[in-house]
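I hope you will forgive my troubling you with a question about protein structure. Here, with my thanks, is the record as I have it:
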Amino acid sequence: GLGQALGGAGAQAQGLGQQAIGAGGGADRLSAALGRVAHYGLAGMGLSAVAHAAASVGQALFQASARAQSLATQLNFATDGKAAQEMAFVTGVADRLGLQLSSTAQAYAGFAAAARGTALEGAPVRTVFESISKASAVMGLSAEQSSGALLAVQQMMGKGVVSAEEFRGQLGERMPIALQAGAQALGVTTAEFSKLLETGQIVAQDFLPKFAAAIDKMLAGSVEEAANRLDASAQRMGN
């Protein structure tokens, strides 16, 4: 019956999706897979609907491939040819926390580039990036808000100092715990920390690792809870 035909089509589509992923970039295998999807899908969808779906799949694959190549170029520049290793790291962060992969990877590429040649290059910049990403997940920030918070920290790294403009005006507006975490990082009160921001004498490469550690301490067990929320699971599916 129709139910059996649709069930068979779904099973075939799932299997063929796995085949296409395993094929990597083989156009011949992908074309064959889409052809079989169309064949089995006729029972429940009709030729025009299947053809439209196949065209959408092709366009999405092309766009994803173009974005991946662009990110690989940026990461290769920022990390002296370690794009694959760095992409594996940022993919793991996005998957573990349920963040949008595209915007998260783009933000990390900027992070890595800003840290190049500084004391933050390598493991320290990963730690800072992951801590800000954890806070974004726990606080349920949108992809745009999360990217804005990460950009503010990137600008601090680029300038070498932590200014009131980036910290309060950009990071603090998106991540309200930032001021408290910043004060804890330096072992001062929030009022004292605010005054220090005005001096422009807080060195980014010294402050940011301490800031990351303070964020992790404040979040404690909230990260795992946030990673298991429905919105995080939905984002993993989207990725």
The chain is about 80% helix and 0% strand. The chain has a mean pLDDT of 80.
